[in-house]
Amino acid sequence: MAYRILIVDDEPALQSLVGEILAGDGYETETAGTCAQALERFRAAPADAVLLDVMLPDGDGFSLLGQLREVRDVPVLFLSARDEDAARLRGLGLGADDYITKPFLPQELLLRLRAVLRRVYRQEPDTARLGETEIFWGKGTVRRSGEETALTAKEFALLKKLWEARGNIVTIDALCETLWDGPLVGYENTLMVHIRRLREKIEADPSHPKHLLTVRGLGYRLVREAAP
Question: Mind listing the pLDDT tens digit for each residue in 183-203?
Fold first, then answer.
């Protein structure tokens, strides 16, 4: 399956150029010219990576980066005419995976995009299955009944942690440590919210789960096979 790249830039000529470069290398592409348009399209179908301009008509790429990451934690590469050290350092400091200055060589863009995608996705197996639910680790999505749904960053982290220990109990403290870098007191209710939302995406009947089970007083367990 080809990686899908969202190109966010307000210059139609550049959108077209970058789209042709990526399509020629086997990528699927989507374009947006504003922050609002980018968010709308990303929420509808989260991309595997984003090429993001810094200056946009209704905002800036620095702010948009954070908004995109709230939807899904994907690699982001800034593609900007601003080559000042301050702009580059700010973008990288906000968590961007690379910062490419316009103009650029097509081969440079492809090489740097490939490097980021390899680094982010290389350690994940392609797919896994929970009953009728298929998990795409590299894309951070799940598919049930033919419908593919994106996982949030925290849902992905939860599912990955539970999958690695499937068949065994993962304690509440261990799950909190996965999500918030420590077993924080008072986060149990917030954890329950994330568990509920994850069940809505992987279970046929979230109110009567067969895959992601609660072990009262201890934590949660992902079964190896669907319960009968």
Answer: 556 678 888 999 999 999 999
